[in-house]
Batch of 4 targets.
Target 1
Amino acid sequence: MNISRNPITCEEHTIPTKLDDTKGILDFINRNSGKRIVVVQGLGFVGAVMSLVCANAIAEEYAVIGVDLANENTYWKIKSINDGIFPLIADDPKIAEFFDNAKAKGNFLATYDPVAYQYADVIIVDINLDVQKQSHGKGGLKDFDVNLNGFKEAIQSIGRNCRDDVLVLVETTVPPGTCDQVVKPIIEEELVKRELTLKNYRLGHSYERVMPGPQYIDSIREFPRVYAGVTETSADAVEEFLKTIIDISKCDLTRLEHTNATEMAKVLENSYRAMNIAFAVEWSRFAEEAGVDLYAMVNAIRARPTHANLMYPGIGVGGYCLTKDPLLASWARKNHFGSTSDLEMSIYGVSVNDQMPRFAYKRLVQVFGDVSDKKVTFLGVSYRGDVGDTRFTPVEPLVEMVRETGAEIVLHDPFVSYWEEQKCNVESDLNAVLDSTTDLIVVSAGHSQYKLESTIDKLMALNTALIYDTIGLFDKEQLLILQSKHKVSVLGRGDLK
């Protein structure tokens, strides 16, 4: 019996053995008669929210079907959506509003059956494409590769089922050249096998800029979009569709000349940010050695308009984009375009960021000494504030290094109840983790809850404790309050001894 566990509720669902949902799909389409069908491939952190945006489209009434695999990692999402519970937690009230609207209209269905592609007018590809790399958090980047097999299978599933007049819109971050050299040949081969015409289908790329957190919905609906098609006709179709779901009164649509350009733009955009972070974290080490406050320096430098985007340091880079996108670009340069050269600076930036959790650990031991006999409480396990995404979180290698000392580990996160990668439960009640037995508190994610006055009060109510702020969460006044009773260290603050 195969079980899929909901990491939010910890509820377990039995995966059906007969993967046929044709009747459910047809019933849904009949209930939404007259509406164009949008099928979203992938119900992860992008696809699930993109489905909501389409179900609440600005300029057209769509019927939306989200498709994902029926396996232990994904089936629970399908079950949750169809049971009326959205499968992620984030600090954006619009998610609940949009989901309630979709439930009221009855225009959002989740399924595991690829037969849904047969009825689609538009198919949006929002699936994962991973980089296999030999490093994450405990050392520098040693090697990496990109395996497109799973992605190709997903595209093949579309090609085997879709109509010949469908618009396929790839949102997934892919190596430059993927739509032209991978997606297009697969779809066309499958259409030819079914003796369908190639002249009517449309293929384009428009990358998402999703920002999980308080602006989750707006980062899709009200943020500038870049798009292209493999032909001008395809680009026109992408533009027409985007105008129905994007609020063009609040943001621009920018057409580039080819999908190669949009694919490159996405990984360039994320590579730039990853490099910016790597620059900051490398200098944080220098600041600590020199005994100065890097945050104060950054604030002073940001006053210059040309340097306003200089980053603060932190525990490292996590999430699904910045940890891999520079590597996708370098891989594509060699494998899709025949270069013999790497994107050396981009690769180095990833390596610097991957080393940061180890540096954070070394700093912890340097400041607080041996932690093997201590009870260590981590405040936050997600990769960024106010989201429940633990994929490639830099907190994970830091937790593992502390655990290896023999220390007792306590985990808290208001957005994560079950940490899938670590296969463990996470406490959501601060009162339950901050008690008289707490020795060391590691602030490891920038959740709004941790910045509240009530949290400072809870920390001050503890007996003398050690506090290690790895992300520069506390402001100047909060630090002074905490320092009056506790020993406090902040990553990048060499002035705090």
Target 2
Amino acid sequence: MRKDGLSQNCIKTRKVRRNPDLFVFSEREKTVPYVTCDYYNGRKCFIKNKCCKLFDKGAGGGTLCLLAGMTCLEEERDMTRDYRDLPPAQGLYDPAFEHDACGIGFVVDIQGRRSYDIVSDALDILEHLRHRGGEGADGKSGDGAGILVQIPHAFLRRECAVLGFTLPPEGEYGVGMIFAHRYEHHLEEQQQAFAAIVEEAGQTVLGWREVPVDDSVIGAQAASVRPRILQVFIGRAPSLRNDMDFERKLYVIRRLAEKRITPRSRKMGSDFYIASLSSHTIVYKGMLTSTQIRHFYLDLSDLDFTSAMALVHSRFSTNTFPSWARAHPNRYIVHNGEINTIRGNTNWLNAREGKAHSLAHAITTMIPEPWEKDPFMSQEKKDYYRYQNFMMEAWGGPAAICFCDGTRIGGVLDRNGLRPARYYVTKEDRVILSSEVGALRTDPKNIRCKGRLEPGKLFLVDTAQRRIVPDEEIKHGIASSHPYGRDAGNIWSTCRT
């Protein structure tokens, strides 16, 4: 043992300034008291004077642990990644260390009945969450707002008929919402490149539609960087047997477009961003305030624009730069909170995306409930969480997530419970959830039951099954689908040897 109390087999980090007193502890150093450091402004850390478990942050390296009183440096990371719409690292600012905290909500008809009222009620929630969203100095350029809904088939069929092409039956085509180049020449180049990718994937471009907007309602800052907003309609090839096969094909198309078209677009001083591409859902969003989105996107005021579910988000960009692309909803989720481990967990999920069998499975993997010392939790669930703990760092929050795949919609709260959200279930079988109480006026006499998201628990509405699915049922199904206890034991045995 060293005189400072550290054993000699503590591991020196390689990617750090030469300091003989700076150590990283391995997982096997269970008996050695140590402290952890939180990242601050990219390169510096502060010490917490307590013993706790070593944890990793991000894709590039781990937290450095050291004796109290010393300074701490983060392990060097690869900072070459291109962060969309963000300025380069400068001074104390680094785009790799941005965090978000916002307002969220959704409305859903449990029976899956579509109506414009669902969309309108969700927009009402969004407008009542304006105080949760940031705004620019002009008071009219927002940090971001948006809505995710089911594809409004009747509305789009009507609009496309006016443009001269016919949509196939619902589910037989996908819709992409694209933020494209503002200038006509470059826009045509992007469209041609995208059509070539669709053809390469064995699918068919049915047509394009420029989304009608009202620029008069947005601020000068938002208007100066507003992209051309297009919808592309992709027909499903007969060889694709089911909806999931088609969704996978649309995912491949989107990823190829991001790899091929987006880099070329940036050289032209613009971007090519696909806000959504699915046969189930579509996203309307932008660098808008919560009260602008209904009026900016003229589609959202049409009574034929119907859905059985709608997910909304009002963005407050804490220490971040707002942009059209960074507004929420994302393609499946919205969040309210601090995503301290998002980069590392994203990489883990990308590496293991084939192992996630459902959206609920992916969410459960990323945001587990407190499980290690729960005496009432089943062993199969503990085995599942233990296995996932080897794969990725748990997202401890604070964060609340809402998610939607067009059939299922729900929410989850981090295991510390620091981003509360509440919900109502009405007698008409509607569920209203929001990060704020009273975001949508509801007659108390019409409320069948109400509750709040619980730490680490899933709240899921399945419109195919026409019910609210209990958390325990979901997680039992996931945990029992694979011998996680066996695999976790094998991993632990390998680590020890």
Target 3
Amino acid sequence: MTGTTQALHDLPAHALLRAYRERSLSPVEVMQDLLAHVQRWEPALGATYLLRPEAALAQARASEARWLRGEPAGLLDGVPATVKDNIATRGDPTPVGTAATPQVAAPLDAPPAARLREAGAILFAKTTMPDYGMLSSGLSSLHGNTFNPWDPDKTPGGSSAGAGAAAAAGYGPLHVGTDIGGSIRLPAGWCGIFGLKPSLGRVPIDPPYTGRCAGPMTRSVADAALMMQALSLPDARDSMGLPHQDIAWSGFDMDPAQVRGLRIGLLLDAGCGLPLQPRVRAVVEQAAAWLESAGAHIEIIQPWLTRDMLDGLDHFWRMRSHVEMQSLPEAQRRVVLPFIRAWADSAGSITATQLFVASQQSHLLRVATVRATAAFDYVLSPVAPITAFPAHLPSPTNDPLRPLEHIAFTVPYNMSEQPAASVPCGHDGQLPIGVQIAGRRFDDLGVLRLSRVLEQLRPPQPAWPQPLPPGRGTGDSEDGAQARARAVPATPA
């Protein structure tokens, strides 16, 4: 088969599939190029877990044979893909980012992994995450640390840290993250990629949990829409799963003229949390101006998230983690990141009454979010109030008693079960800035369509970052895991 002048690891999924059909590219060629590219990047990024080159090449050879017979296995046959550490893959441990978890092989693929395999995608690696997914950074007692390809001194965000870094660095086109408070959208925004948190239950996941979603993390809306064709297929294991709908995901490519008459809310004040950086505000306002110039009606929305709501979520999640930590033997508990231990241990003084009041705040936030956004077709806002923070910090505040100050724009839509996406729309220097688009519950396709409009209205984006020369990246001069571990703080702030 003949090759192409473009770097194969940078090709989007739909381009790969077209080349496979035309026999101008082989899945083996693509996987060989991708693995070489990952090898160049990975010592500096630390984005992968269970990277298996030989198994990936074996899958690629099987895919190549199917394409040569004209019998592709499914929608994504031969396309490289990753899933996050906490998405179970058959025969592999699912440590959820922490060295405290026993290494027990999963008996089955979790739904997102199962759907990708059924579609023929090549799952060549899993991606890193922080301990229990409880940080918006890449710090992990198991994985060490994960770094942002745009600036390795900065975090990629979390908890889908490895997925965000991998997508930005060109580790193939398709990546799956999870999101319970912003864990798809935050790394998407800070890594300059597209990320979709679907409506709760749209993408089946196991185990399910209130607000927890799995979704695509890609370089383009087109590839995310392609992934949704597979990821949204039903799975009975998700007790919160939505009834399957035959959604026309291929209809994502909305013309900017079609936004005429849409009523779009503009939220620039989350109500609490970290103050909004001027450059982030400017990028969001510019995105609103693009949509307004295309005929949308833009209206400022007043904040609805309160301090009590955000603190209530924090205290409830602290108690959940505290109970989980207390169930661990002392030797296992000691290896959890100190920041997370300090955060969870602080719940020991919470009374039953306080816990009940805290638990109610998620419902109050759900009601307030639906009420505040009901009059609008979509809501535009920052993804995060700040750009990517230093990679050695577990959170922007570096304070285990103020851990959620940066998720005030994202977490409301987890509680309300509404779809929301991060679209890269600007930079502060070399650091990407994402704009969030939220839609009404179940309008996942609408969010994709408006995201596609922003893709078309924004100016050309900077070229994707490239691997640093030898000796320049974190970990180039020594074992990558050891280098990344240097950034793990020994004590909480």
Target 4
Amino acid sequence: MATTLMGRAATLAALIGLAACAPQPKDPQPGAPETAGKPSRWAADPFPSTYEPYASGVTAIRGATILTGAGAKIDNGVVVLSGGKIAAVGGADVAIPDGATVIEANGKWVTPGVIDIHSHLGDYPSPSMASTSDGNEATAPNTAQVWAEHSVWPQDPGFTRALAGGITSLQILPGSANLFGGRSAILKNVPARTVQGMKFPEAPYGLKMACGENPKRVYGEKGGPSTRMGNFAGYRAAWIEAADYKKKWEKYWDEKDAFDKKKGAKPAAGAEEAKEPEAPTRDLKLETLAMALGGDIVVNMHCYRGDEMALVIDMAKEFGYKVTTFHHGVEAYKAADLLAENGVCAAVWADWWGFKLEAYDTIRENAALIHAQPNGCAIIHSDDQYGIQRLNQEAGKAMADGNRIGLNITPEQAIGWITSNPAKAMGIGDKTGSLEAGKMADVVLWSANPFSVYAQAEKVFVDGALLFDRSDPKRSPRMDFEIGQLGQGFTGGAGQ
């Protein structure tokens, strides 16, 4: 035990020393690349987003302290929302359009909408029922063919509770039973009849993978893998197969392009007329993996241990794909420099660990030490129906723990852990995650400093529409499921 504690202390001291000596970025700087909007030759999404913003007018929030999510703090600031977008943000001299609804916010704070990069709402609804527990397709180690959106129950009351906590966008991931759990879906946190009505427009899909204890526990008596080496053998075999599948389709597309260019042309004397190439048979599992290899799908890796993160990064280099985020990275502080060097974010809890062996060895300064690396990308996530309601407080705890060891993290930096950093890692950072002109008007008005345990989200705007107002019962949404369920739990609306 003494050796273990001394090892942890030495690691912490070394990381603090590195952080103190390294040049500090002015703003949170996620390292994951943007993939949204990237042209793709793969089949179009057969379940396209039908999301349409709720109606909104012109709104100006005046007098608040503003954390932009892009590294700035503005005292006595003004934010103007118009046409569903951020029209202007700045100091008290920002012009307010005639006819705008003006919200006087002296003593209050404004931030971008909070984004949860790791949620299971809709797939594991609250209240929890066996009939709606649909997050893990635990039938094979590789279920890359399943899509989380096909399990999302839009009437999950957890969505409205999250809205009352300032959540405007979230990524719904499959569970972590499998080596390859399937595709994730990015949603706007709005009431809708269908999951398509919640899907974030033009957001890339994500691939959920898991390493460590979970896959070997689930499949150890089902034919394997039963060890970590079995896990990695399974990943690599799947990537080899996916790479071959990708080559077949690329060969077909090249041949089809050549055929189309010659279509209608008279063949040369003695030459046979060209035959249209035959497309390979589609395979949903391999299609998802091949798209990940090509950068069309963002890779999210459930991984607790720092040493495994290093192995996964090497594997990604072997096959030419990129892990954008390690989720649940309780040991990310041990590999913080490696993650930063490779442009990989770490999504972590503020202070939750110890529930299984691979989750034992974390420290409260985990997120702060990730952030402190040059170009480090720290993200605070939930994985929980209750945690998602107070990600602002979780980020506040993590900031305080970092400052306790002298890292001097400011609120304007820490707000990026729950706004701009997850947006960037999810491939939607060009659309949301910060208060910048032209981006979606996803905005939260807080009663106080959002990192305070006393702060509440007073008003939440999604694409400029006021969808939650703590002072107005008409803006405190209830799901159809809750109506008439007297005696069956909470039925008072999101803000009650």
